[in-house]
Design a protein that fits this description.
Layout lengths: L1 H55 L9 H4 L3 H6 L3 E7 L5 E8 L5 E4 L1 H4 L4 E5 L5 E3 L2 E5 L5 E4 L21 E6 L7 E12 L6 E5 L11 E3 L5 E12 L4 E9 L7 E3 L1
Antiparallel strand pairs: 1-2, 1-4, 2-3, 3-7, 4-5, 6-7, 6-14, 8-9, 8-11, 9-10, 10-13, 11-12, 12-13
């Protein structure tokens, strides 16, 4: 009898030990899962912070004057003639930029590099009105192009009779940087430079621009077009080097155009 009870007690002890081992194993697995989940969370947060860092490192300095100039009388009067340009190229690719309309029927000036090689062009005015480009001309020896539309009574701006800006002159640039529409900036004209031996003189402006600003009009204080922005450049001033907008004088449009 005692021997049977001892056997039963030993069997119960073994079962209790097995249950205890199972509980310990479950606890261990729980802690392992928690550690894995914590590591995954840390990795996810780190990735999010890295993405956020990349987002905030995009330079939005070009918006610094937008609030103060958006109600400026000159800007409000001139911005309807500033257009967005989408040039459709091969394999579904496209490029975008800015342009300015110079005639009521639609004669839009932009940069050559925005529309070169395109199979189709769409020019969009404010208010959602869009027009297909009917004819495209490239200007010789300058990064300029002319898009002809079939419009009527479109908003337009006149070109300056002088055909260029003066060093020290205060000018206004209106463009479409990084998808923002008709963003104004104002600054002084620096100096004139010749980037290529047979190219036109270009001038710098102490304003901040960004991709999408190519083709932006440079306006004098009366709202006449004195130049077209085409790039940025590092310009040495008296005590430092800074990045500035580069523009082609509107007088370069008087060069004989080469039809594409």
């Amino acid at each position: 009898m005692d021997g049977r009870m001892d056997e039963e007690r030993i069997g119960l002890d073994e079962e209790e030990i097995e249950e205890e081992e199972i509980r310990e194993e479950r606890k261990w697995r729980t802690w392992v899962l928690r550690i894995v989940a914590l590591l995954a969370l840390v990795a996810f947060v780190s990735l999010c912070l890295a993405e956020q860092h990349l987002l905030w490192t995009v330079d939005f300095d070009f918006l610094s004057q937008d609030r103060t100039l958006s109600e400026d009388e000159l800007v409000k009067r001139c911005e309807p003639a500033v257009v967005s340009i989408r040039a459709w190229k091969s394999a579904g690719q496209s490029s975008s930029g800015t342009g300015v309309n110079l005639a009521p029927e639609g004669v839009v000036v932009t940069n050559r590099h925005v529309v070169e090689g395109s199979r189709g062009i769409t020019v969009s005015f404010g208010g959602g009105k869009s027009y297909p480009g009917q004819e495209l001309e490239m200007v010789s020896h300058a990064d300029l192009a002319v898009i002809h539309l079939q419009g009527k009574d479109l908003p337009f701006l006149p070109t300056s009779e002088e055909g260029e800006a003066r060093p020290g002159q205060l000018v206004t640039v209106i463009g479409n940087p990084r998808g923002f529409q008709r963003v104004p900036a104002r600054g002084q004209v620096g100096g004139y430079y010749r980037l290529e031996e047979d190219g036109p003189l270009v001038f710098d402006i102490d304003v901040v621009i960004a991709p999408g600003s190519s083709g932006s009009p440079v306006l004098d204080d009366s709202g006449q077009v004195v130049g077209i922005v085409f790039a940025t450049g590092r310009i040495k001033t008296e005590d430092k080097e800074e990045e500035r907008a580069l523009a082609i004088p509107v007088s370069a449009l008087n060069l004989e155009p080469d039809e594409q």
